[in-house]
Amino acid sequence: MDSIWYCEQTNMFSLLCPHKFKTFEKVHEFNNYKNKEYIYFEEDAAHKIYLIAKGKVKVGYYDDDGNEIIKAILSKGELFGEKAILGENKRTEFAQSVDGNTAVCPIGVETMHDLMRTNKAFSLKIYKFLGMRFKKMERRLQLLLFKDTKTRLLEFLEELKEDYGYCCPNTGLIMVKHPYTQKDIASLIATSRPTLNILLNELQESNQLSFKRNHIVFQ
Length: 219
Hints:
Elements: H1 12-16, E1 31-33, E2 38-40, E3 48-54, E4 56-62, E5 68-75, E6 79-80, E7 94-97, E8 102-108, H2 109-118, H3 120-146, H4 149-164, E9 165-167, E10 174-177, H5 182-188, H6 193-205, E11 209-212, E12 215-218
Antiparallel strand pairs: 1-8, 2-7, 3-6, 3-8, 4-5, 4-7, 9-10, 10-12, 11-12
């Protein structure tokens, strides 16, 4: 597996959630959201970052024509709103729950800076995570802008291998168990579900992979 995306596989919730730190435990809270509820909008003040305790969150923005561009769909253990750590004052993207029972842990930017100042190892992990996250976002946006639909799907499948793949000890095949629905994948590669189904069926018929819900086996 390519180690460049290692931090994406880290459960950031277990690393960052303030209830792990006695100093901040008293001000720790969870916010709950229903499906399609917004956690923040573009242009909102950026004074918190968020960790996903359960559910899924979609992060994206709208282009000049009003089209929704999905940057990421994140699940339990992942972090979003992280640009606030680097001094972003207003959001340049929106965050929306895409699960009927999503819970997030908000952390104030000042709290995060305090944690980083008092723990150098912790601080290095955060900066490494931020660097990897920005590289991954840049890679995904380049795919959306310059590649055709099939290429976008193939690149996304390779990304799933890197993030979630493992070698089956019995068959030697690469198996992937991932958190995305087909609707999620279609949104992330900017296509429709019918088009996605056609492409996945083509790959399955050519014996490149087999899939069922959130399981993929690469031949």
